[in-house]
């Protein structure tokens, strides 16, 4: 059957304007773990950002993903580099999360990081960090999904996970 307009039940309707405020509010209400991703620019200077999109993709081989906007100040470095460090954060790392989400020029001012494997910036005192090789970058509209194969890492001291919800940092509360 050849129809002049798409069937709204088949998922092909492209002229539907989504309720962007509902979309934004939905994801503000969705709590997410907080991570920091760091790398090196081609000139060797550190770059990094706070992310809430970190996810495990596979255990064998160990793969992780994160998403970022192509307009992000860190994107040019992530687009060009081979390796990144992914840090998971605990409640004690709130200041580091805020610093890496703040002014790009000041993200690596201070004593909160050190050069790690491959000279990559490692944030001090996180719950864990993993070095990985970027194996895929998928551009989707104005964003990218980055796939990283984990090569090595270290665990830090345990802590309650740092969560981001409703534009604020939180700690989890047990329900039992």
From TrEMBL:
Taxonomy, superkingdom: Bacteria
Residues in Flavin reductase like domain copies: 27-171
Claim: Oxidoreductase is one of the keywords in the record: yes
InterPro entries attached to this UniProt entry: Flavin_Rdtase-like_dom, NADH-dep_flavin_reductase, Split_barrel_FMN-bd
Any one GO molecular-function label of the UniProt entry: riboflavin reductase (NADPH) activity
One annotated GO biological process: pyrimidine nucleobase catabolic process
The keyword Magnesium is assigned to this record: no
Keyword tags: Oxidoreductase
Pfam family, one: Flavin_Reduct
PANTHER family for the chain: FLAVIN REDUCTASE (PTHR30466), FMN REDUCTASE (NADH) RUTF (PTHR30466:SF1)
Protein name: Flavin reductase (DIM6/NTAB) family NADH-FMN oxidoreductase RutF
């Amino acid at each position: 059957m050849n129809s002049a307009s798409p069937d709204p039940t088949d998922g092909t309707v492209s002229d539907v304007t989504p309720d962007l405020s509902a979309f934004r509010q939905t994801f503000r209400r969705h709590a997410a773990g907080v991570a920091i991703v760091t790398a090196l620019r081609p000139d060797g200077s550190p770059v990094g950002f706070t992310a809430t999109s970190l996810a495990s993709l596979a255990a064998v081989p160990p793969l992780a993903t994160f998403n970022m906007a192509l307009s992000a100040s860190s994107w040019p470095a992530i687009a060009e580099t081979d390796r990144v460090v992914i840090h998971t954060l605990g409640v004690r790392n709130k200041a580091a999360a805020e610093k890496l989400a703040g002014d790009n020029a000041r993200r690596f001012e201070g004593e909160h990081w050190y050069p790690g494997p491959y000279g990559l910036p490692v944030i001090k005192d996180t719950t864990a960090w993993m070095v990985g090789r970027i194996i895929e970058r998928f551009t989707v509209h104005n964003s990218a999904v980055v796939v990283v194969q984990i090569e090595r890492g270290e665990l830090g001291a345990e802590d309650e996970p740092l969560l981001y919800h409703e534009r604020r940092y939180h700690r989890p509360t047990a329900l039992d």
